[in-house]
């Protein structure tokens, strides 16, 4: 089905063509007519499925330019990186329309954002905390608001923003169209949807909490102190063009980035201790190919929309199973293939089991061709007084699977 059959106006069709898209994705086919019909929407969709265009295109079409600049559409996102990307998408799709897009997020000065809001915007993309700062200063007028979009609602819940979101919603006009998108549907998000959506259209483009089908998932059993060496080997001996590596901590991200650069790789780090300018530069360098590896924490990397990521590496098994789904959703975007590699130390076995239970499938273990790993339990014995402490052993059956 071409985009023209969805009823988009010529200006939007030109913008979509200019962006290089020819046919809509499944979520766009389902969501765009529902938004045109004025329906509230509850979308279960992972990133990389085209969900931003699924709400941006119909909202832009319905926001006919009026007299003056009045805030008529509010999009809330959990992170500044996602806010920037959503605003850029609105700008790209609305390039031939006379609409103004505003963007507010934390980590930068309030003043330029205040000036933009006072001049007036038609669409505002915001993170909850910074939006509440502007609301407390009287910089935002929701009187004419027609659309509210909650993007990646589950992540807003994970990051502790859900109360802020509820406070913001209480100040909005009750007569509005609300769209809620989430990759997973925990109980708190389902309850929020029940509270704010009116007779919504439900759209689920993939089974809940399942990874994208085109992602090839593997596990390498490796002790923690050998993970950096194994990653360096993979980067040198496999075709890995653009690699996103997830670490559990900010310090771990910095340490691994230094190790990779010392071994001749081009790597940058992305985490909460970075300034907004540093994060923006790292992302731009990774997108452009100047860096082939981006080492990030979950909070910093959530919602990244970067085409061409060939591999996602879970340097640490995520402790929250849902984060695994979010992580590997960075690759295999828009129907492309991708690889997700997980490094599992013996003490991380239970975390992997929880992930497999969530996604409803086993993730196969593989040996690394041309690389001989020492046994993951071969850790130096640590003596304390007269007692000897040894790590719990990873039991392996004769078939090579974990037990």
From TrEMBL:
Catalysed reactions listed for this entry: ATP + H2O = ADP + phosphate + H(+)
Ranges where the Helicase C-terminal domain occurs: 230-381
Pfam family name, one: Helicase_C
Residue ranges of every copy of the Helicase ATP-binding domain listed in the record: 32-203
Entry keyword set: ATP-binding, Cytoplasm, Helicase, Hydrolase, Nucleotide-binding
SMART domains: DEXDc, HELICc
SUPFAM superfamilies: P-loop containing nucleoside triphosphate hydrolases
Family: Belongs to the DEAD box helicase family.
Residue span, DEAD-box RNA helicase Q domain: 1-29
TM stretches of this protein: none
GO molecular function, one term: hydrolase activity
Example GO biological process: ribosome assembly
Motif Q motif location, chain numbering: 1-29
EC number from the UniProt entry: 3.6.4.13
Species of the source: Tectimicrobiota bacterium
GO cellular component, one term: cytosol
UniProt protein name: DEAD-box ATP-dependent RNA helicase RhpA
